[in-house]
């Protein structure tokens, strides 16, 4: 039996590690001829730790092994807050020699042939290592197909214009992977970055074309326009293998576990489709004035709510708010007792699966969108950072799968979204028989069909594994 070893290189950071490992598990479940070595780039800020997820997979699956690369001195922390894309690109690139050494000493010397490197979208520089070693490389793209199209568009545009996007007065962009022309307000902040973020992404976009395949966490039925926009001979084959969702979510411990149980118990007591859930991803947070407006908007909407509140912090991860009575409008907590619940980090996947949830006010991170579609819960869009503006634009304008709350909000803009806008969007989101809700339900069924035998993503994953096994060294 022909077999192959794959080398996975996730970029540092929890969400990319988790989705990459989720994909690794899918591949192994699908084809027992494959084995995987994961090269772990340690977090630039925390000392090398053996993450619990890594430990549990290493202990439970004999076909996955982890090699922790030596700790490398990161770029200055200030760069992280000016341009996270540039910070990550530089940090990853500084691991090239370690990656090459690890593959030569631990993989090529072993008995299994090497089927290729699977590199995270922010590790595109590792495609060079694959070239040096004469092996294949596949990009694992954790965003969606339309945004992958945007990344391909960047170098094409750059060759004509030679500079980053200027500002909101730029003309709309014709990006083939989007149905509509894209206004500057819907572009991600990196498009405007003069601090290296833009040029890092141009370089990634160029590099992607040198890979042997692009693996995207999406499904054809959702993004048929974007997938069809890719010109066959100009880019590597695209494999749509999603939605890949960790439906179990992470197991909480200690206080978290108690809080999660309290949330689920509270939801059990609410009528079906009556609760709007607000949650804004790993980095989403607001200042005090914005939290007040959200509270007023929710109260005025008259709907029940579960609200994951996280407080902005100047130079660190958002934190759970401790003094909500002082921050929120006077009497808000008292008045909404029984109809609303506030939490910190939420068990999002479990929450979205609950029958009581009727709508989701989301920052439009791609995982959140896939999770919400999977469970048939419509979204009201409130993008904040990364590529969330483009995701929101695509969901509302291109696909008609979300209600518009904001499309062009972005962190650091100083904009205050007023209670009336929030109230209006929540009311529209929670309508029982809306067209959006109907379309989301249909897409939910399609997402579930895509990953089972006979589905588009199932077939795509099968084609990918065959290619990986047939082309090893
Ligand atoms: N998430 C969660 N609880 C929270 C916030 C986020 O479980 O309070 C999970 C969510 O289910 C999703 C991931 O964290 O799987 C966020 O990924 P996404 O791509 O949506 O956004 P990001 O955090 O990368 O901006």
Automatic annotation (TrEMBL):
<protein>
    <recommendedName>
        <fullName>Glycosyltransferase</fullName>
        <ecNumber>2.4.1.-</ecNumber>
    </recommendedName>
</protein>
<keyword id="KW-0328">Glycosyltransferase</keyword>
<dbReference type="InterPro" id="IPR050481">
    <property type="entry name" value="UDP-glycosyltransf_plant"/>
</dbReference>
<dbReference type="GO" id="GO:0035251">
    <property type="term" value="F:UDP-glucosyltransferase activity"/>
</dbReference>
<comment type="similarity">
    <text>Belongs to the UDP-glycosyltransferase family.</text>
</comment>
<dbReference type="Pfam" id="PF00201">
    <property type="entry name" value="UDPGT"/>
</dbReference>
<keyword id="KW-0808">Transferase</keyword>
<dbReference type="InterPro" id="IPR002213">
    <property type="entry name" value="UDP_glucos_trans"/>
</dbReference>
<dbReference type="InterPro" id="IPR035595">
    <property type="entry name" value="UDP_glycos_trans_CS"/>
</dbReference>
């Amino acid at each position: 039996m022909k077999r192959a070893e794959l080398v996975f290189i996730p970029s540092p950071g929890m969400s990319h590690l988790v989705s990459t490992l989720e994909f690794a598990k899918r591949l192994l479940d699908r084809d027992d001829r494959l084995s995987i070595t994961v090269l772990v780039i340690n977090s630039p800020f925390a000392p090398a730790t053996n993450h619990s997820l890594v430990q549990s997979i290493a202990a439970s699956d004999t076909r996955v092994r982890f090699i922790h690369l030596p700790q490398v001195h990161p770029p200055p922390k200030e760069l992280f807050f000016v341009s996270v894309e540039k910070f990550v690109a530089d940090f990853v690139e500084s691991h090239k020699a370690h990656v090459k050494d690890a593959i030569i000493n631990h993989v090529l010397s072993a008995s299994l042939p090497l089927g290729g490197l699977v590199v995270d979208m922010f590790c595109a520089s590792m495609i060079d290592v694959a070239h040096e070693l004469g092996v294949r490389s596949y990009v694992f793209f954790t965003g969606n197909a339309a945004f992958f199209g945007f990344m391909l568009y960047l170098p094409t545009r750059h060759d004509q214009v030679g500079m980053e996007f200027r500002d909101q007065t730029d003309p709309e962009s014709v990006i083939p992977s989007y149905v509509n022309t894209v206004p500057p307000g819907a572009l991600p902040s990196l498009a405007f970055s003069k601090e290296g973020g833009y040029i890092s992404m141009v370089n990634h976009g160029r590099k992607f074309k040198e890979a042997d395949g692009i693996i995207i966490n999406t499904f054809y039925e959702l993004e048929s326009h974007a997938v069809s926009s890719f010109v066959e001979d100009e880019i590597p084959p695209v494999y749509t293998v999603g939605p890949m969702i960790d439906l179990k979510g992470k197991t909480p411990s200690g206080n978290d576990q108690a809080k999660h149980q309290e949330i689920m118990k509270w939801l059990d007591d609410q009528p079906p489709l009556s609760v709007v859930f607000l949650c804004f991803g790993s980095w989403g947070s607001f200042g005090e004035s914005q939290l007040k407006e959200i509270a007023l908007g929710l109260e005025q909407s008259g709907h029940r709510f579960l609200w994951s509140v996280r407080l902005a912090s100047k130079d660190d991860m958002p934190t759970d708010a401790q003094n909500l009575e002082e921050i929120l409008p006077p009497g808000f907590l008292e008045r909404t007792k029984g109809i609303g619940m506030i939490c910190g980090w939420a068990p999002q996947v479990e929450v979205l699966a609950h029958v009581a949830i009727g709508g989701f006010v989301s920052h439009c991170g791609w995982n959140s969108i896939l999770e919400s579609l999977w469970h048939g819960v419509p979204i009201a869009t409130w993008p904040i950072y990364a590529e969330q503006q483009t995701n929101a634009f695509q969901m509302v304008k291109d696909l008609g799968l979300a209600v518009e709350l904001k499309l062009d909000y972005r962190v650091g803009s100083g904009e205050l979204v007023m209670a009336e806008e929030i109230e209006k969007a929540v009311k529209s989101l929670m309508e029982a028989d809306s067209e959006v809700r109907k379309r989301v339900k249909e897409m939910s069924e399609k997402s579930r069909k895509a990953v089972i035998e006979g589905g588009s993503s199932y077939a795509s994953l099968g084609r990918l594994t065959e290619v990986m096994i047939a082309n090893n060294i």
